[in-house]
Structure formats: C-alpha cells, structure tokens
Amino acid sequence: MIGAILLGLVAGAIARAVVPNDAFSHMSGPVSWLVSIVLGLAGAWLGWWLFTGVFGIGDADKFDFGGIIGAIIGAIIVVWGSSFVIKKMGAR
After folding, report:
1. Cα 76 versus chain centre, distance
2. Can you give the residue ranges of every domain in the chain?
3. Bigger pLDDT: 2 or 41?
C-alpha cells in the first residue's frame, strides 16, 4: 500500500510538472500533495491498463520498473484530460 502511494505521488508530481498550465497549478500544501497522489494513482491504473491490457506489454503478476514508465505516461494523460475538462467547465 505504501509503495502504491509513493508511486502515485511520484507519477502525479512528474505528470503535473510535465503538463504546462494544468488546472491544479494554483494549489499548494497538503491539498497539492493529495491531488498529485490521486492523479498519480489514477494514472498508474490507466498506464497499467493500457500497457498490459491493450498493448500486451509488461507483467500483470509483479511490480517492475516498466510499470513506473506506464504510470507516468498514464498520469500525464489523466492530468491533461482532467485539466481540459476542468478548464472547459470553468469557462461556461
């Protein structure tokens, strides 16, 4: 469980650093950390699903370093998509 939280934090933080002008950039402190963890965990799940389920790359039985790359790519997709939706809803 602690490993999953750390993976979510790392993947979410990297994704938020890579995506320019994300909808969460105004946050700071514990809320920012929590948002990074949640986005990172969602991205890790998306990355695992894409790489293992769709492309057949990786191992579904154990954690490996390829999972970190998938988690970061998934987190970038989640941050970009959620920022897009939040900005569009805020513009209305």
Report:
1. 6
2. 2-18+27-87
3. 41
pLDDT score for 18: 93
Q: Which has the closest alpha carbon to 40: 14, 3, 22? A: 14
* Cα–Cα distance, 69 to 51 (Å, whole number): 10
Q: How many residues in the chain? A: 92
Alpha carbon distance 30, 35 (integer Å):
9
Report whether 66 contacts 35 (CB < 8 A): no
Digit-coded pLDDT (tens) for 12-62: 999 999 998 888 888 888 998 899 889 989 998 898 888 888 877 766 665
Q: Number of C-alpha atoms within 13 angstroms, CB side, residue 75? A: 27
38 CB contacts (<8 Å, ≥6 apart)? 8, 12
What gap in Å lies between CA 80 and CA 22, rounded to an integer?
7
Query: What integer pLDDT is reported at residue 5 of this predicted model?
Result: 82
